[in-house]
Amino acid sequence: MSKKVVVIGGGFGGLAAAARLAARGHEVHLYDKRDQLGGRAYQYEINGFHFDGGPTVITAPHLFDDIFAAAGRRREDYFTLLPLDPLYRFFDQEGRCFNYWRGLDETAQEVARYNPDDAERYRAMLEHIRHIFDTFQPYSDKPLTTLGQMMTIMPDMVRLQAFMNTDWFIERYLKDPFLRKVFTFHPLLIGGNPLDTPAIYTLIMQFEKQWGVFYPQGGTGAIVRGFEKLLRELGVHIHLQREVAQIVIQNHKATGIRLDGGEEVKADAVVCNGDLPFVYKHLISAAHRRRFTDRKVDRMNYSMSLLVIYFGTKKRYLDSPLAHHNIIVNSRFRGWLKDIFRHATLPEDFSLYVHMPSRSDDSISPPGHENFYALVPVPDMRASIKWEQVGPLLRDKALAFLEEHYLPDLRANIVALHHIDPTHFRHTLNSQYGAAFSLRPTLLQSANFRPHCQSEEFDNLYFVGAGTHPGAGVPSVLSSGKIAADLIG
User: Fold this and answer.
1) Which among 31, 304, 320, 410 could bridge 403 via Cys, Cβ 3.0 to 4.6 Å?
2) pTM above 0.85, yes or no
3) Do residues 97 and 91 lie in contact, with contact meaning Cβ atoms separated by under 8 Å?
4) DSSP β-ladder status, 325-328 and 244-250
5) In degrees, to the nearest 5, what angle opens at C-alpha 349 toward C-alphas 336 and 180?
6) Per-residue pLDDT averaged across 162-186, rounded?
7) Which distant-in-sequence residues (6+ apart) come within 8 Å of 173 by Cβ?
8) Strand, coil or helix: what is 265?
9) What is the spatial distance between Cα 138 and Cα 135, in angstroms, rounded to a whole number?
10) Is the pLDDT of residue 145 over 80?
11) pLDDT at 261 over 80
């Protein structure tokens, strides 16, 4: 039976859920507070440059394909995905690079350049990770809502040591200090601390090995535009610049939403792509909540935040050692992680992720120009940092570092510059404490222990996005959209 469904938020989770629900014949209304869809994948246009606001690593393209196929369409008719190899290029403090290839043999050869003995241990590690992937990946698009389901997977968690932290897991196999950093970084892609993120999340490596890493022609914004075209074809009512002020609860059921101007919209189901902790604390009255009280929300473990710098240059840097995706790790890696996650202090040093999409696509910059995105992990807003002062200083420090080591005369050639910091995640994206990836993927915030896609407190309320099962990262967020749509029917 057709239902009227309200979707709050136009990030990838909301877009995926809206498309699947509309393809099943439901009447779908999508509300977003910003002037365009995308959520964290919002695309900025500055002086002729197109900068992707958020996710830049796209893997598991079949998850996109399935959404369009469910609507009787071909994803390729809406946007193009270009395969990348190497998947990433890592740099140590001396500027030596490590190419992380999709192929096992090619990456093992790179490992051998640093430590020949680690090459075979790397193969053994990947075989272990493949077993983790084969065992747990099937649960990534299914609701885990009961203790019985959790008990079913616990023996495998123990057998595969998937409950141990990622740092321990990698150190068990690899001996070279730099290689340990290279293969420990993946939890940071989903907001996790490698020192406490369980090794079950190493399955991300197998995602990349099995399905590759891709770049969408035109940037991640092209995916959002492809989704918007699909939704309009399916009859989804898209309401931009309409902020939701409240989820209306009656008799422990979500019955609709109230917009910022006071207008109430009735619905048979509400799908929320807003940050789950923020939603419980700010969009649902405390008088209705028993489980997700303010105290519980405040005490949950949150991801780090980010300073993200978008900059365009009036020259090309084709002779730079930088590839499309680059990760520059510092020598004090564990201490740096502890500063951010445990001590909530801003380190003096930093590690950087640098995205250079114009390596693969010159359409996102004016002719003869280069497009960059640099990401610096930082503490969330529970740290006492005055970002209006610190943000520009850290931005300039990162740009100076890149100029000294990778991009000569960078600052003299910048013609487009923008940055966001934790205040953006808090106030623009409504993320609790400005956490860039919502809830941290700890052992007790994973699988059944993570908030469920179907609200544990209220009927007819569903969650998609980084804060719910299966977690952060584009594949997980898309899967949450499938779970919510399947639950609604």
Assistant:
1) 410
2) yes
3) yes
4) unpaired
5) 45
6) 97
7) 118, 121, 122, 124, 125, 128
8) strand
9) 7
10) no
11) yes
Which segments of 29-145 does DSSP mark as H helices, in order? 62-70, 104-114, 116-136
Q: Count the neighbouring beta carbons within 10 Å of the beta carbon of residue 475.
A: 25
Average pLDDT value for residue range 446-455:
94
Side-chain-side CA neighbours of 466 within 13 Å: the count stands at: 30
Q: Are 330 and 336 in contact (CB under 8 A)?
A: yes
CA angle, residues 383, 199, 344, in degrees to nearest 5: 10
Cβ–Cβ < 8 Å for 334, 195: yes
% residues pLDDT > 70 (the chain): 100
Exposure of 443 in the CB half-sphere (CA atoms within 13 A): 13
Alpha helices in 274-421 (DSSP H): 276-282, 294-299, 333-341, 387-405, 410-413
What pLDDT, in 10s, does the model give residues 262-321? 999 999 999 999 999 999 999 999 999 999 999 999 999 999 999 999 999 999 999 999
352-355, strands of its sheet edge to edge: 97-100, 88-91, 325-328, 352-355, 370-378, 305-313, 414-420
Q: Which amino acid is at 128?
A: H
325 neighbors 355 (Cβ within 8 angstroms): yes
Beta bridge pairs of residue 27: 4
- Angle among Cα 47, 53, 54 to the nearest 5 degrees reads 160
Q: List helix spans (H) across 373-444.
A: 387-405, 410-413, 422-427
Which tokens go with 42?
């919002």
Q: What is the pLDDT of residues 55-97, one digit of tens each?
A: 999 999 999 999 999 999 999 999 999 999 999 999 998 889 9
Domains of the chain: 4-80+215-300+441-488 (3.50.50.60), 106-212 (no CATH), 305-427 (3.30.519)
Q: What is the CA radius of gyration of the chain?
A: 22
Instruction: Locate all alpha helices (DSSP H) within 308-428, ordered by sequence.
Output: 333-341, 387-405, 410-413, 422-427
SS3 23: helix
